[in-house]
Amino acid sequence: MTVRTRFAPSPTGLLHIGNARAALFNYLYAKHHHGQFLLRIEDTDRERSTQKAVDVILDGLAWMGLTPDEEPVYQSTRIKRHQEVALHLLETGKAYKCFCTQEELADMRAKAQAEGKAPRYNGYWRDRDPSEAPEGAPYTVRIKAPHEGKTVLNDLVQGEVTVANIELDDMIILRADGTPTYQHAVVCDDHDMDITHVIRGDDHLTNTFRQLMIYRAMGWNIPHFAHLPLIHGPDGAKLSKRHGASSVVEFRDEGYLPEALCNYLLRLGWGHGDDEILSREEQIKLFDLDGVGRSPSRMDYAKLLHVNGYWLRQANDARLTQDIISRLSEQEGFVLDPIHQQRILALMPGLKERAKSIVELTQNAAFLCMEPPLLFNDKAQKLLNEENCAMLSKLASQLATLTSFTKEAINHLLHQFAETEGLKLGKVAQPLRAAVTGSTMSPGIDDTLLALGKEEVLARLGAVTNG
C-alpha cells in the first residue's frame, strides 16, 4: 500500500495555524512512509469560497515548503460524481428521498427538545413510499443510518472511540437543489483520490462516524483516521486573534521564517525526546503518529520567537537581504539601489545575531538605506551633544586620511584616536554609532563603518558635525 494523505482546506478565510499544522503533519507522515501528499480545495460553498482565499492557501503552503505531489483537486468540479454516488445509494435502497419541509423539520426538532431528546430528524420518510408526497415536491436524499449496535473507530491518535449507532441520524447527502453535503463529498473525494490516511483536527471526530456510514454503504475500503488535538491560546482558551497572530499570513507578516514556524508547529503536539530544533530532513526521518499526544497544545509565542531567532541565524545572508529589501520597498524614504543592498549583505552576519524576526532585522538594517541627514532616536540625539560633535569632527578628519578602508585599519584608527584623546573606546564608538546609524544599537562599529563605506561614513559625520 502506498500511503496517500491529503490536506483539504475550505477557501473561506485565512489559512489558520491549526490547519497549517494539520497540513504539515499530513506532509511529514506521507514523506516518512515514502508516500504522497495531496491537496484538495473544498470549494463547494460557492458564496463564501473566493479565489483570493484559494490563493492565500496555495501561497501559504508554498511558503511553508509543503508542495503537493499532484495537482490540487477542486471539489466543486466533482459535483456530478458526488450526485452519481448518492443516486446509486438511492437505487440500492441504502438511501431514500425525504420530502419534509423546513417547517416540518423545525417542528420535529422542537418536539424532540420538549421530550428531552436530541433535536434531529426522526426518519419520517425512511420507510414511506415516495408516491405519498405531493407531485413535484422538492426532496433531499438521506442515507439510512444503522439503528442497532455500535460503531468502533480505532483512531491512530485518540485510540479506540465508540459511538452507539442509535446516536446517528439519517443525514442528508444530497440537498434539494442537487448539491452534495460536505459529509458526502468528502467521502467520495477521499475514496476516488485513494486516500489511505485521513489526518485532521479532532473537531472532525463526530463527522467521521457519520462519514463511515457512506463508506460502508458503498462497500469502500475505509482509510485510517488520525484526529489531532486542537491548538489553544496560552490561556487554554480557543486560539483567536486576541492571543496574537493565528494565521500563516500573519506569522509571515510578523517576520517569522517558514522553517521556524514549521519547526515550532511540529513540536506543538508531537515530540521526539528532548529534540527542539529539527531540520526538514530530520522531521521526515523521525515523524510518525505514535508521537502525537492526545491533549490540546498551547501556543507559546515567546518560544516561537526563540526558535525563529535560531533559524534566522542559520539563514542565508542573501536570502535575508532580499527579505529586507522587499519589506523596505513597501515604505517611503529608503534608497534600495545595488549599493545599498550590498551594504545590507555586508553587515548581515552581525545584524542577524541581534534579531529574532525579519521585522526586527529590517528595522535594524534600515539605516543602511537612508540618505543623510538621518533621523535620530532620543538616545542617539542625546549623545550628539556639542562636545561629542567636536570629537566626531576630529575623528572624521582622521578617517578621511585612511587609504585602506578595511576592518583592521578602522579598528586600529579608532583605538589610536581614543588613546590620543584620553577616552575609553566606548566614549568614541557610541557617539560615532549614533551619528552614522541614528540609534545606539548596531553590529560592531568597525563592521558598521565598513558596510557603509568611507564616503558614506564621512557624509553622515559631516551632516552631524557641520549642522
UniProtKB/TrEMBL annotation:
Query: Which residues does the record give as ATP binding sites?
Result: K241
Keywords in alphabetical order, please: Aminoacyl-tRNA synthetase, ATP-binding, Cytoplasm, Ligase, Nucleotide-binding, Protein biosynthesis
Residues in Aminoacyl-tRNA synthetase class I anticodon-binding domain copies: 337-463
Q: Which GO terms describe its biological process?
A: glutamyl-tRNA aminoacylation
Q: What GO molecular-function term can you cite, just one?
A: glutamate-tRNA ligase activity
**Primary location:** cytoplasm
Could you tell me which residue ranges the Glutamyl/glutaminyl-tRNA synthetase class Ib catalytic domain spans?
3-304
Q: Which SUPFAM superfamilies match?
A: An anticodon-binding domain of class I aminoacyl-tRNA synthetases, Nucleotidylyl transferase
Q: Name one Pfam family in it.
A: Anticodon_2
Subcellular location, record wording: Cytoplasm
Q: Where is this motif: 'KMSKS' region?
A: 238-242
Q: What sort of enzyme, by top EC class, is this?
A: ligase
- Map motif 'HIGH' region onto the chain: 9-19
InterPro entries annotated for this entry? aa-tRNA-synth_I_cd-bd (IPR045462), aa-tRNA-synth_I_codon-bd_sub2 (IPR020751), aa-tRNA-synth_I_CS (IPR001412), aa_tRNA-synth_I_cd-bd_sf (IPR008925), Glu-tRNA-ligase_bac/mito (IPR004527), Glu/Gln-tRNA-synth (IPR000924), Glu/Gln-tRNA-synth_Ib_cat-dom (IPR020058), GluQ/Sye (IPR049940)
Describe the reaction catalysed, as an equation.
tRNA(Glu) + L-glutamate + ATP = L-glutamyl-tRNA(Glu) + AMP + diphosphate
Cite the EC number: 6.1.1.17
Q: Which GO terms describe its cellular component?
A: cytosol
PROSITE patterns in the cross-refs: AA_TRNA_LIGASE_I (PS00178)
Question: What Gene3D superfamilies would the database entry show?
Answer: 1.10.10.350, HUPs (3.40.50.620)
The record, for HAMAP family, names: Glu_tRNA_synth_type1
State the oligomer form and interacting partners: Monomer.
Task: Tell me, in a sentence or two, what this protein's role is.
Answer: Catalyzes the attachment of glutamate to tRNA(Glu) in a two-step reaction: glutamate is first activated by ATP to form Glu-AMP and then transferred to the acceptor end of tRNA(Glu).
Q: What is this protein called?
A: Glutamate--tRNA ligase
Organism listed in the record: Commensalibacter intestini A911
**Gene name per UniProt:** gltX
